[in-house]
Amino acid sequence: MAATDLERFCNEEKRNLSLGGHVGFDSLPDQLVSKSVTQGFSFNILCVGETGIGKSTLMNTLFNTTFETEEASHYENAVRLRPRTYDLQESNVHLKLTIVDAVGFGDQINKDESYRPVVDYIDTQFENYLQEELKIRRSLFNYHDTRIHVCLYFITPTGHSLKSLDLVTMKKLDSKVNIIPIIAKADTISKSELHKFKIKIMSELVSNGVQIYQFPTDDEAVAEINSVMNAHLPFAVVGSTEEVKVGNKLVRARQYPWGVVQVENESHCDFVKLREMLIRVNMEDLREQTHTRHYELYRRCKLEEMGFKDTDPDSQPFSLQETYETKRKEFLGELQKKEEEMRQMFVNKVKETESELKEKERELHEKFEHLKRIHQEEKRKVEEKRRELEEEMNAFNKRKLAVETLQSQSLQATSQQPLKKDKDKKNRSVITGNQSGVSLSNSKVMITKANVEPLNCSSWWHAIQCCSCLVKNATWREGFI
Amino acid sequence: MDKEYVGFATLPNQLHRKSVKKGFDFTLMVAGESGLGKSTLIDSLFLTDLYKDRTLLDAQARIPQTLVIERRAVELEEGGVRVKLTVVDTPGFGDAVDNADCWGSIVDYIDQQFEQFFRDESGLNRKNITDGRVHCCLYFLSPFGHGLRPLDVAFLRAVQHKVNIVPVIGRADALTPREVGAMKEKIRQELEENAISIYQFPDCDSDEDEEFKAQDAELKRSIPFAVVGSNDIVRETKEKAFRGRTYPWGAVEVENPAHCDFLKLRTMLVRTHMHDLKEVTQEIHYENYRAQCIQSLSRVGARDRASRMKLSRQSATELPLLPLETEKLIREKDEELRRMQEMLQKMQAQMQQSQGEQSAAL
Q1: CB-neighbour burial class of residue B47 (10 A; exposed 0-12, middle 13-18, buried 19+)
Q2: CA neighbor of A203 nearest in space, from B95, B60, B94
Q3: Are A45 and A175 within one domain?
Q4: What residues of A are in contact with residue B67 (Cβ under 8 Å)?
Q5: Could you say which residues from 35 to 54 on chain B have a Cβ atom under 8 Å away from some Cβ of chain A?
Q6: Does A447 have pLDDT greater than 50?
Q7: Is the domain of A284 the same as that of A360?
Q8: CA-CA 20 to 30 A from B246: which of A128, B14, B129, B146?
Q9: A362-366, A421-425, B234-238: lowest mean pLDDT where?
Q10: If you average pLDDT over each of A130-134, B130-134, B181-185, which comes out highest?
Q11: CA nearest B33 in A: which residue?
């Protein structure tokens, strides 16, 4: 509903009403101007040209001050851009001037990549502005605009034509920035040569499709002067900060043995024209062009890259808001999916590791059991052996006892039966034999202590040896020796 | 007849007569980026129109430009003395966007000329040798920069031991006298830093007169020469006409020593040091080249002495006339063959060994 209302409103015929008296809105431009003046202006110039071609001197001459610079060396490895910001003031107008220098341009032996840092710098400035514009909380009125408003391209005055590097670079820059080509150090070309040179340059630019900045001819106030100036492109300039006495006043000039080149003399060079066009007449237009043409082009390309469109498939006008929302949802959805995936992966990994650990545990347990069993086995075996041994010992002791009782009996009997002498002798010998070692009488043969530790013996023979040792060392009762 | 007078004091006159009859030849090479005034300077130096009908390339055509070597020969005569002047031009130097090794063809050209002369000199028939060796190379530096550029340094390094280099600042009417002095100082410093040996003027003998010595010293101080060239004659007044360039603020006189060093260059190049340049080329640069050449040949000779012996029996003084490149190829192929044979032998030995082991094991 609202949309159709709006349409109807736009299509209505606008009626021109005449005023009955002086209302006062003709002061609007003045209000705008005074507001801008208090805010201050900013202007950014990019200077591209070979080292030593006179860029810094020209800037000094244009703005009638000395921006501190040191002479650049020829031995830079790659082109780099050096921006410097200055605050200038004239009457009550503040200007924040940024001069960007392309240091090392044209010095390398291989100049294939010379244009790239320049293009990247311009794109970065556009990008920064775009980011600021897309922010939720933005402060565009406070934002220090660093977008390049004009590129002064310095052409070497060979007198023949453009250099190949110039052509390649200007082609890359013409859709991103306003280019004003300048013939530098023009005091080395005579008038006729200059005329031919300018024609050659312009024809080369046209035939290669390079779009340089044309001064605007739609505003009646400046249309005439601008169209005249357009015919003088490219400007042949001479820069100088030294002053020379000509006639009876000091002017900025270069002194040669054969004459003096005055910077502000129209017949000597086009410096005055450049200053008029660049600063006095068209500065605002340059800024506008940068904002409405170059920046918008950049923005459109960038947003299209990101996937925004002006109309959706049903060709209903899409608002940026909705597109933004959908994009955001998409993005968040993707993030979530990724999260899920990662979580899944994590869980899987954990499970795997767990199962592995369990396996290992089980194995360990098994081993333990196994070892325990073996241990038990061994213990049992040893116990058995010990029992056997004990039994043997018991049996041996019994026999011994029996033998002894027999002996004592036989001793008693020998007084009666001398026939048993031999036996006795044997027994005696046995006894004597026995007396030397272990003395036995009663059956109370003390064996060693009841709590026998299991013997760590490898064979029963060994065990007996050990037992006999133990028996020897036993604690006897009833005073056996 | 004066008994004391022998008469060989007339030798210089005889030499003079003969040399006039024979004529001289001089090869001058000019190198430098386009637009620095090389062609205009050559025309002004020799007061001819060597470059009358030339066409210059567009910037678009120059992007992938490679260097070509152009020779222009002209016969000049002055006072009965004939000079055959050959100017070797190098259009396309430093013009492309990627100039890596763009001086390769220049170095090859110089070497080629040396080789040609070497072969001619060692040949049997030495009557009509044409000397195409480059006697002097005028290298044009740009007045718009701050001294030497990386491309200049690279080129000068590559040719310093092959040719006499005379550095020149072209289009010097872009520089005020103070700037000219500063630039010359900077260039001299940078040449020293990079250890580039340019053509040194010979010191004059101590018995020359003072004026000559002073002149010589001044000449030495002005290297590199800051020149302006022009083919147009300017007529300021009916009587006063000179060669120069007119500007709205004045006119540059090419032959005015206060305006530029053109006169010094012309004096040095044509009037006083032309012969010395030829001599240095012959005695130093050519001899260096020749020694190098023979050394590399003799390295080959040390290896295949046998084949060489056969050759030398046929022609006692004749050196092998095979061109150097095929010699090198033959050498390389020999090496390869030898290596492969060695490898084969090794493999055979190994095989035999393993066979022996196997049989032993069995």
Answers
A1: exposed
A2: B60
A3: yes
A4: none
A5: 35-36
A6: no
A7: no
A8: B146
A9: A421-425
A10: B181-185
A11: A158
Question: A48 and A91 share a domain?
Answer: yes
| Chain B closest-CA separation from residue A53 CA (Å) | 5
In this structure, the answer to whether residues A144 and A232 fall within a common structural domain is: yes
CB-nearest partner of A208 from B34, B36, B60: B60
Looking at the fold, whether A42 and A179 belong to one and the same domain comes out as: yes
Token reading at A468: 């006999």
Contacts of A18 (CB under 8 A, 6+ apart): none
- Residue with the bigger pLDDT between B38 and A323: it is B38
CA distance B67 to B90: 7
* Min distance B133 CA to chain A CA atoms (Å): 28
Q: Give the range of the structural domain holding residue A348, as residue numbers without chain letter.
A: 331-397
Which position has the higher pLDDT, B261 or A471?
Answer: B261
| Token digits of residue A401 | 């006892």
ipTM of the complex: 0.70
Side-chain-side CA neighbours of residue A67 (13 Å)? 21
CA distance A271 to A184: 10
Is omega for the bond preceding B91 within 30 degrees of 0, making it cis?
no
Q: How many CB atoms lie within 10 A of CB A54?
A: 23
Whole-number percent of chain B with pLDDT over 90: 15
User: Is A410 inside a domain boundary?
Assistant: no
Residue A3 in any domain: the answer is no
| Whole-number percent of chain A with pLDDT over 70 | 80
Helices and strands (DSSP H and E) totals, chain B: 12, 9
d(C-alpha A121, C-alpha A126), whole Å: 9
**Do β-strands A259-262 and A249-256 pair in parallel, antiparallel, or remain unpaired?**
antiparallel
Residues whose CB is less than 8 angstroms from the CB of residue B182 and which lie 6 or more positions away in sequence, other chains included: none
pLDDT attached to residue A406: 87
Q: State the pLDDT at residue A308.
A: 66
* Distance between CA atoms of residues B147 and B169, nearest Å: 10
Q: Looking at the structure, tell me whether residues A135 and A71 fall in a common domain.
A: yes
SS (HEC) of B137-178: EEEEECCCCCCCCHHHHHHHHHHCCCCCEEEEECCHHHCCHH
Q: Give SS3 for A151.
A: strand
For residue A359, is it within any domain? yes
Q: Which two tokens stand for residue A376?
A: 């038990």
Which of A279, A33, A28, A294 has the alpha carbon at shortest distance from A145? Answer: A294
Q: Dig out the tokens for B37 from the structure.
A: 């005034």
Residues A218, A170 share a domain: yes
User: What average pLDDT does the segment A296-323 reach?
Assistant: 68
Instruction: Name the residue among B56, B96, B144 with its Cβ closest to that of A156.
Output: B144
Q: Residues of A388-413 as b/e, b for ≥16 C-beta within 10 angstroms?
A: ebeeebeeeeeeebebbeebeebeee
pLDDT averaged over chain B? 81
Is A89 found in the same domain as A148? yes
Mutate one of B33, B58, B245 to test the A interface: name it (highest A CB count within 10 A).
Answer: B58
Structure tokens at A77: 């490895």
pLDDT at A266 over 70: yes
**Cβ contact B135:B27 at 8 Å:** yes
Number of structural domains chain A divides into: 2
Token pair 């095929």 in the structure block, residue: B326
User: Are A168 and B63 an interchain contact pair (Cβ–Cβ within 8 Å)?
Assistant: yes
Structure tokens at A8: 């109807």
Find the largest Cα–Cα distance for chain B: 117
Cα–Cα dist A397/A470, whole Å: 15
The CATH number for A136's domain is 3.40.50.300
Q: Is residue A5 part of a domain?
A: no
Write the pLDDT tens digit of every residue in A207-241.
999 999 988 888 777 888 888 888 888 999 998 88
